[in-house]
Amino acid sequence: MSKRLLLIEDEPNIIEAISFILSRDGWHVASHSSGTTAMERLRAEPPDVVILDVMLPGRSGYEVLRDIRDDPSLAKIPVLMLTARGQTKDRELAERAGANLFMTKPFSNTEVLEAVRALVPAT
Amino acid sequence: MISFNGLVVICLAYVAMLFAVAFTADRFARKGHSRWLRSPIVYTLSLSIYATAWTFYGAVGSAARSGLEYITIYLGPSLVMFGWWWLLRKLVRIGRSQRITSVADLISSRFGKSNLLAVLVTILSVIAATPYIALQLQSVTVSFEVFANGGGTDTGEVVGRNTAFWVAIGLAIFTVIFGTRNLDANERHHGVVMAIAVEAVVKLTALLAVGIFVVWGLAGGVSQTLEVIEASELGQWQVHGGRWAGLIFISGAAFLCLPRMFQVLVVEAADEDHLRTASWAFPAYLMAMSIFVVPIAAVGLAVLPSDANPDLFVLTLPLSQGAEGVAVLSFLGGFSSATSMVIVAAIALSTMVSNHIVMPIWLRLAGGRATISGDVRNVVLTARRVSIVSIVLLGYMYYAVSGGGSALAAIGLISFVGVVQVLPSMIGGIFWRGATRTGAVAGLVIGSVIWLYTFFLPSIGIEVFSERTLAEGPWGLGWLRPQALFGIAGLDPFLHALLWSLALNALAFFGGSVLSFPTPVERLQGAQFVNIFQHSGGPRSWSSGVAQTEDLLIMAQRILGPGEAIALFRREAERQGVRGDLPEPRPDFLETLERELAGSVGAATAHAMVGQIVGGTSVSVQDLIAVADESAQLMEYSARLEAQSAELSSTARQLREANDKLTRLSVQKDAFLSQISHELRTPMSSIRAFSEILRDSGGLSAEEQSKFASIIHDETIRLTRLLDDILDLSVMENGRVSLNMREGRLCDVLDRAVAAGSVGESDEVSLEVRRDRSTEDIVLYTDLDRLSQVFINIISNARKYCEAAKPRLTIRVREQNRALAIDFIDNGQGIPRDSRDVIFEKFARISDQRAGGAGLGLAICRQVMERLGGTITYLPGQGGAGFRVLLPRKAALAAE
Amino acid sequence: MSEPRETHSGPPVYFLERQTYRRRRLEDAARLLPVIGAFAWLVPLLWPRQGPEAPGMGNALIYIFGVWIVLALIGAILSQRLGRREPPEPVRSAEE
């Protein structure tokens, strides 16, 4: 059974790109483009891994991440943060919020793939 | 020979004429023609009361007896007048600004309004003046007798007494009528001054007539007269050096100190400037008065029998030659001299007596009632009238008791030395700030006592000291001999008295001043007197009632402010039914005023101030005005400080605002950098991701390949647009943009903008644009592309940020005086107040949660509008976000 | 010989200064007049009393009245000149 991945991102082209790459690797990719409703989506279909963009309409990625870590049913889900801001302070912010990995846009496709694989070791 | 009765008739006619002159002058003054009455000439002539019967008759007598000595009596005053710039100018200025009513008032005023000093000066003046008045009565009597008896021989004493009595009564009546006509002591006596001016002319004419008659009529010309003079006993130059200098000094000093002289010189001075004319005109008058004295004396000695009284040569010489007209004129001259002196002296002395002796006593007796019952003016009036009658009668009684025997000149000198005791206090008081009340009292008392003891009592014609006392001193104490004080004998009695009294007076004055300490009021007054030219603004009007109100108004203005003060006074004047702006200083008005002032300066001060002006004590009006000025300055100063601190805090606020703005901008700049980074990285992510897919992934369908390629293409275009925006902004900020000016219609521009602004709109939420096309039919001449860029920005902003469920944008076009206003108003939440001032800054974005532009849109809009000569502003209070684009009129060509 | 700069810089100022200066000197003259008068009228004290040198009454009269007339004339001129509107009196300097 393929692992499920939720991509929370508002940029349609990026959703398309990541979905394409990960689908080819056997992942079941779902996407959500709003920060406000992200938690509901997560609770409804808890994924195995989450790729979370920082700049989201409604709520920022950091807030969403904090909610994930606060929710006992979701707390253990590994999260990869994606951000278009490459500053160190953004990285720190992400780590403090509880991100497992942090990547800066533009990213390399293989890096994303490897990161996701590392987060969810094959069982 | 003119009969005695005839002379009486002439005399009465002359007196009637004087009454008429005085009455007319008063009438004129009342009608407001006082200017005409108060010319420099009248002032100069009024000073001629210095020349009394003593000088009219006595000068010739003195010349016959002791040669040229008589002339010193004229030289002293001439020098004082020539030196007006030193002393008289100051004295007159002080008199006017301090409202001095007499010598006593001057001295008392200077030394802290001390009534003790005023009383001392008053008593001294009355003592000194009484024999002098007696002397005038005597001279009139004697001159009557000359006519009555057809020669200089003895007459019945009863006739003399009666004459003197009736003259005294007549003078008292005249003085009461014209001297107390006006209640206020400050009020000038126009009638009196005019009458004495006329008398001055009469006596000069009389003396000149006699002189001309003698020189050209009797001697036969100037050279013959000089021969007669050289041949007579007078031919030798024989003057006593000490007396010569002493007499010049005493006459000059007395000219200043005599109460009657002070009255005409200072109190009656209508205009300070008159002094300027009098400074040379009065010496000239005196010269004219004295020029024929020696010829008359010499010719008289040569022509008349040796037993003839030289004091009466002026009368007897023409009479003996049968020139009755000249004789009668001469008689009138003597009569004028005597009467004018008595009248003015009585006025001056009565003012002093009533103000400084009667009134204080009455006020004390009446207690608190006096100021309330309001009959003070009547009391003053009565006091003054009674004083006048008393003083004249005192003179008469002195004449009656002394029998009028002694030589006339002697009494004049005694009187002079007495009044001159005031001199140290007067001169010291106006030139030396260190002079104190104690010093003045000490000097006056010691000087007066020595004068009485050494000069007045031994020689007034009433036996006070026995022969033995004079020769051996009281109780055999030789060093106390009245005319040889401290064993210094052999001096002329006049010089002896003058030297001792004035020297010890001045010494006591100086010592007392140095050793004592002045009260605050004294120090204030001292400063006021000594520095009168710095303090007083200039000559001020002196007429009483209104002037008093004027003072009140001046003071009130300084405290209440001009507008309010004048309004208050006008209201009060209206209430009293008085025309003009100055009400009468009636008690109710004063109470109102005091209450008004109390609001500003406190009740106690207000009371003191009003009381002062209306006639209180302690501090002078000028001081209070100075105090008021000071407090006004203080208020102004604190107002200035307040303004300054307000300015400071406003500057601080501005600085704080600028700082806040900078901080916000800096935060926004950081945010923008992140944003621009985000905006650049997002398309680049897509580009990189899809190019990698295209490169690395095999087995892509053609459709997929084309889709991915077009995504890459779109994202590069997006990148380019972003870079264009940034470049656009920077170019426009540097002002290097060229405008493509074209003609076009506003509605077309808006159509294009609305269409472009809606590009990429998602279907579920579409922005409804409301327009009124009828208002948009306006022809523009501007860079239509740039303008449309602005509109697009605004419209897409609305699309991006309007959070309403059914977003709606209303576009309103309106002509506004010189510009075309295009308003864009949406129905969203609007922009928070604190963000409004930064939205037009570049990099500005209200929140980083809202994706969309790079925060450059409005900044670009502002730059564009600036280039187009218009503005774009945030329009608050529209319910949603509102933007107003203003285009200058020249850009908008109204449709035909 | 005067500096050209000065004359250029302010003729009106110079004029005013001159007027004030003139007035001050007139005031000085007015102050001096009585002093001169007093001296002149005390001169007779120095005359010999007796002997052939002693002046006669006629000459004495002429002298005294002559002084009188001269003083009155000077006084008249001074007062006429001083009568031109007194300038608003500034705070007097110590020199006054």
TrEMBL record, chain A:
One GO MF term: DNA binding
Residue list for modification 4-aspartylphosphate: D53
Keywords linked to the UniProt accession: DNA-binding, Phosphoprotein, Transcription, Transcription regulation, Two-component regulatory system
Signal peptide: none
SUPFAM superfamilies: CheY-like
GO biological process terms on file: phosphorelay signal transduction system
TM spans (from-to): none
Domain Response regulatory intervals: 4-120
Keyword Transcription regulation (UniProt): yes
Domain of life of the native organism: Bacteria
Protein name (Swiss-Prot/TrEMBL): Response regulator receiver domain-containing protein
From TrEMBL, chain B:
Classification via InterPro entries: HATPase_C_sf, HATPase_dom, His_kinase_dom, HisK_dim/P_dom, HisK_dim/P_sf, Na/Glc_symporter_sf, Na/solute_symporter, Sensor_HK_Regulatory
A cellular-component GO term for this protein: membrane
Keyword Ligase set for record: no
EC main group: transferase
Keyword set, alphabetical order: Coiled coil, Kinase, Membrane, Phosphoprotein, Transferase, Transmembrane, Transmembrane helix, Two-component regulatory system
Transmembrane segments: 6-29, 41-64, 70-88, 116-135, 163-180, 192-219, 244-262, 282-305, 325-358, 379-401, 407-432, 439-460
Localization terms from the record: Membrane
Domain called Histidine kinase: residue spans: 675-891
Pfam families named in the record: HATPase_c, HisKA
SMART domains recorded: HATPase_c, HisKA
Topology with respect to the bilayer: Multi-pass membrane protein
Catalytic activity field: ATP + protein L-histidine = ADP + protein N-phospho-L-histidine
Recorded GO MF terms: phosphorelay sensor kinase activity; transmembrane transporter activity
Enzyme Commission numbers on file: 2.7.13.3
Record carries keyword Metal-binding: no
Entry coiled-coil feature ranges: 627-668
Major subcellular site: membrane
Annotated family: Belongs to the sodium:solute symporter (SSF) (TC 2.A.21) family.
Protein name: histidine kinase
UniProtKB/TrEMBL annotation, chain C:
Protein name, as recorded: Uncharacterized protein
Ranges annotated as spanning the membrane: 29-48, 60-78
Top-rank taxon: Bacteria
Keyword tags: Membrane, Transmembrane, Transmembrane helix
Taxonomic lineage: Bacteria, Pseudomonadati, Pseudomonadota, Alphaproteobacteria, Rhodobacterales
